[in-house]
């Protein structure tokens, strides 16, 4: 077999239906569009969401709050657990800038909340925007210090 002899399998390529080509073609006269009415005429298409003049579901949706609703005023914190701080050496100062440089958070201007999952054996100076009570207790128990950084609602909102 040579390249010029290659053919697709028989009936593997279906021919498109050519409508409006006479009675013998099987889809002549009205070409499968029915008789009269807007949709039978050329250019007579309607938007997909058109519901005959009734207020479409698409227009009702913005008022339906729930799963898809995102509060534009919500301040989102990037969470970091205490166990992830163990990569810093003893006595180091841990700030959002240092966390971003270490690849723990994406950007240094994110609002950071330290949470208490895991253990911490080293004393660190941790500076963040928020601390959970358990995180604060674990950092101080390991001989470290905790400092809350100031933040304001108008600052960068993180996802």
Give the topology string: H per helix, E per strand. Answer: HEEHEEEHE
Output the radius of gyration. 32 Å
Number of helices: 3
First-last Cα distance: 59 Å
Shape: elongated
**What is the averaged pLDDT score?**
88
State the low-pLDDT regions, or none: none
Explain the overall architecture.
It is elongated, with a radius of gyration of 32 Å. The chain has three helices and six strands. It has a domain at 78-148: Ribosomal Protein L15, Chain: K, domain 2. The chain has a three-stranded parallel beta sheet. Strands 2-4-6 form a three-stranded parallel beta sheet. The protein is an alpha/beta fold. The longest helix is centred in the last third of the chain and has 9 residues, at 133-141. The protein has helices at 57-60, 96-101, 133-141, and strands at residues 78-81, 93-94, 112-115, 125-128, 130-131, 145-148.
Question: What is the fold's blueprint, element by element?
Answer:
Blueprint (H helix, E strand, L loop, with lengths): L56 H4 L17 E4 L11 E2 L1 H6 L10 E4 L9 E4 L1 E2 L1 H9 L3 E4 L11
Parallel strand pairs: 1-3, 2-4, 3-5, 4-6
Structural key phrases:
three-stranded parallel β-sheet; alpha/beta; single chain; 159 residues; 13% strand; 6 strands; 3 helices; Ribosomal Protein L15, Chain: K, domain 2; elongated
């Amino acid at each position: 077999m040579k390249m010029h002899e290659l053919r697709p399998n028989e009936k593997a390529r279906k021919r498109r239906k050519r409508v409006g080509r006479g009675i013998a073609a099987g889809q002549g006269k009205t070409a499968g569009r029915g008789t009269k009415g807007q949709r039978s005429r050329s250019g007579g298409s309607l938007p997909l969401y058109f519901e005959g003049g009734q207020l479409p579901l698409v227009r009702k949706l913005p008022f339906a709050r729930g799963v898809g609703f995102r509060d534009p005023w919500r301040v989102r914190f990037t969470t970091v657990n205490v166990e992830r701080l163990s990569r810093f050496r003893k006595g180091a100062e841990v700030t959002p800038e240092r966390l971003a440089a270490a690849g723990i958070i994406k950007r240094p201007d994110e609002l950071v909340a330290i949470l208490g999952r895991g253990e911490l054996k080293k004393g660190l100076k941790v500076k963040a925007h928020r601390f959970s009570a358990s995180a604060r207790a674990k950092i101080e128990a390991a001989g470290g210090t905790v400092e809350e950084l100031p933040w304001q609602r108008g600052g960068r909102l993180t996802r």
